[in-house]
Amino acid sequence: MADLVIIGASYAGTQLALAARANGFAGNITMIGEESHPPYQRPPLSKAFLRNEVDASSLPLQSPERFAEERITLRTGVTALRIEREARKVELSDGSEIGYGHLALTTGARCRTLTCEGSGLGNVHYLRNLADACAIRDAASRSRTAVVIGGGFIGLEVAAALRTLGVEVAVVEMQDRLLQRAVPPLISTFLMRAHAHEGVRFHLSSRVRRLLGHASVEAIELESGEVIAADMVVAGLGVVPNVELAQACGLVVDNGIVVDRYARTSDPQIVAAGDCAAYPNPWLNAVGQGVGQGVGTKRCVRVESIQSANDLARVAAATLADRAMPYEAVPWFWSDQYDYKLQMAGASAGHEQIVLRGDVESGKFTALYLRDGTLIGADTVNRPLDHLAARRLIAARVRPDPTALQDESIPLKSLAAA
Hints:
By secondary structure, the protein is α/β, with parallel strands linked by helices. It is built from 11 helices and 25 strands. The strands form 7 sheets. Strands 3-2-1-7-19 form a 5-stranded parallel β-sheet. It has a 5-stranded parallel β-sheet with strand order 9-16-10-11-12, covered by helices on one side. The protein has a 5-stranded antiparallel β-sheet with strand order 21-22-25-24-23.
């Protein structure tokens, strides 16, 4: 069988390699990674790792023995420079070339960066990889004040970690509420109150004019003219998919490497998965979310989550092993902030009705979102059983009685059978 080369030693790359073996792929598998580290967990970087609760030794996704057992070769500390599709080979930064029968792109994404005056000062940080997290953790040990630019998930998780470490934190967000594109106002308000209770200060509907300081940042100036002291800055401005390799070799790219429901790119010998891939997601397309145009007629989305990376990677692996199965997984996501675990399933966008289980003020509740009577999404805070049940209900496309949904004496999981 032809060899498989995976560009990107990521969650998606690792899952794809292991799933390919599980599906009977018998050829050689080589994974190419830019970082010197073997593939590792990234969610803890903004949570437990940043809070000094775990160290780097706990982060590897798999042991060296597991990769060896599965006959997966890791080539770390090397970058893929060019894909030659006709010759079916990849040029690498160490001067070597590697041929492939099948190619998988799991190149991930990179942080958007500040472009304002002063953005090149010292102690201005982004969080995407282990080196970034180490730098932020080190800076936090020497800082009294921090400004987090961006009120998205990464920004809020970093803010929570910094407060736990005793750093004074201010969050600057250009929108008029937190997580505006990801959650309804109910969740935005809850999280803002949780952070405010811990001492975080917010500057909503605000833009950064410039960063002030000499060698290192000392303050930020908002467009309003307000100046906020900062011994360190962390910018959480979202990410940009790494599509340059795909684009240069002529693959279809539209805010991501465009793939179909089987993870196939516009070249049938190349699949893609993870944060770099834009794919037709039946659950998000159903409520009108999407970016770009997919292979075929359905709009494609990029879902930046570990769950999405793993699920699409398994689909890609099945495709490579001639056991093609379409992507059908309900998207889900989680975020840990202080003692709160927010878990999201499906989509809240496009909902017509919200049903609430529990008391928001207690910090333990479930918000369920319906459209045309069908459950399309759920956000839970500190209710893991509700989250698991909601995922099953969404997958079943149930049309539940809203009164039953709200009744906490009725377990959510029982509604699936009904």
